[in-house]
Amino acid sequence: MPIELTTLSQSSLQDYNDCPRRFELRYLQHLAYPAIETEPALENEKHQREGEHFHRLVQQYFIGIPAEQVSKQANTDNLQRWWGHFIISKDLAVLRDLPGLKTEMTLSAPLGAYRLIAKYDLIASDGGKFFIYDWKTYRKRPKSEWLAIRWQTRVYRALLVQAGAHLNGGIPIQPEQVEMVYWFSEFPNDPARFTYQSDQFKRDRDALLRFAEDIKSASNYPKTDDTTKCLYCPYRSYCNRGARAGDALDTELESEAEELFDLNFEQIGEIEF
Questions:
Q1: How far apart are CA 44 and CA 29, in angstroms?
Q2: Which of 125, 164, 181, 189 could pair with 100 as two cysteines, CB 3.0-4.6 Å apart?
Q3: Model confidence, pTM
Q4: R_g of the chain computed on alpha carbons
């Protein structure tokens, strides 16, 4: 029996955008994953665990734990390489000295009948500009054009504008003050940067409200017509869309695990969309 949905995130919106049927199975029916997402499965699972570990290392660094101490936890070849790239990055080194640094921070705002939530790897401010940093351990550098249209890029910037005033002394953050940066541990000298404009914010806000209304009124959830997406979907056996999993390098660009949020909404500032 479907479970009533109360929150939306960039992951659930992306799933609804890519395949309403996947959205239904994952977020409304909460079905277990019957099929592996990638080949080779064990290698990809190890890479995902290392990615999570890397995020923890970076968080520890930005809350003030000495780099030498953090580096001792980089106990695999991948982690040592990623951490080495991170620690020598001049662009990232200056972040630690900025005021108003927030790591692993969650923002929330009402969105139609739902709450829109996002967990940020890092939000940094230099007094007039706000930078959203997101750490990616992709094995292949995605095209910036692809990232620009992903719901993560749109949601993270829009939600910071909408619900980030408490990070700016109670003054609303303007879209032009926001920049989102994807930093790639395998490609440390080639980050993807996305500034923001008021017209983009308006389009994103309108699109988010429209998506929320569509999801609320939906009575059926059709399968995607793009069957290539089924290669990376753990629910493909429910839809008789094949048994073979997609290649791990492509899969990590198409699918990211949904964050599990443990939130006290009373402690999260919010502004009505």
A1: 26
A2: 125
A3: 0.87
A4: 19
